[in-house]
Known about the structure:
Layout: H1 4-16, H2 20-25, E1 31-36, H3 47-56, E2 66-71, H4 79-88, E3 93-97, H5 99-108, E4 114-118, H6 122-125, E5 135-137, H7 144-154, E6 160-165, H8 172-185, E7 189-194, H9 201-210, E8 215-218, H10 222-238
Parallel strand pairs: 1-2, 1-3, 3-4, 4-5, 6-7, 6-8
Helix pairs in contact: 1-3, 4-5, 7-8
Amino acid sequence: MMKRRAFISLLGGAAATWPLAARAQQAAMPVIGLLDISTPSSRGTAMPGFRRGLNEIGYVEGQNATIEYRWAEGHFERLAALAADLVGRHVVVIFAGGTPAVRAAKAQTATIPIVFFIGEDPSPVLTGRAVTSPGVTNFQNQLFGKQLGVLRDIVPNATRFALLVNPNNPNAEPDAKDAQAAAHALRLELRVLSARTVDDLEPAFAVMSEQRVGALLIGVDGLFFDRLMRDLRVENAAQ
């Protein structure tokens, strides 16, 4: 999750680069766009920090700024239209959560600043038509080796591991390659399994059971994160 201070500095820097014409047109109530691959519920814990960060640089939603939220809800095919809609709303900056959201925003504008939060090396993502875009990455896709090592230590008797990816996510193929390389270096057997929707999760786990998978590594994807957050809320409510 993005730290509040990091977000404040990033969005503050982006604000300084907002086109003068856009700022002049929307001086009374600038419109900030939020484009995310996930759902409002899965990002629920992050939204208060997002708004506090805006407040600390002088923007209060509903008072002197408007926030237009666009959630893809795991449907990556919606991102292009959602990004185009934000551009059509003449937003002064787009906060893009997830690599597919960044790419969708880039494809729609070469002038609106994009503040991003992704889980991989941003260099390939920001090539091409991108404006200079501040952002944060946790390089999560480069941690597969360490994650597999931890799983091996936790389940030392496991002989087979699995990685769960969403084929609809552009990250799925490169993440699978990175994880396979990490597994090979650790001399571990890794199976790559897929789930495009929530309905695909149960069959995927059935395959893991049939193949006697001892530990699971979950790929970076809004679908999985949303389901995890939903299950945690249900678990906390039951306690």
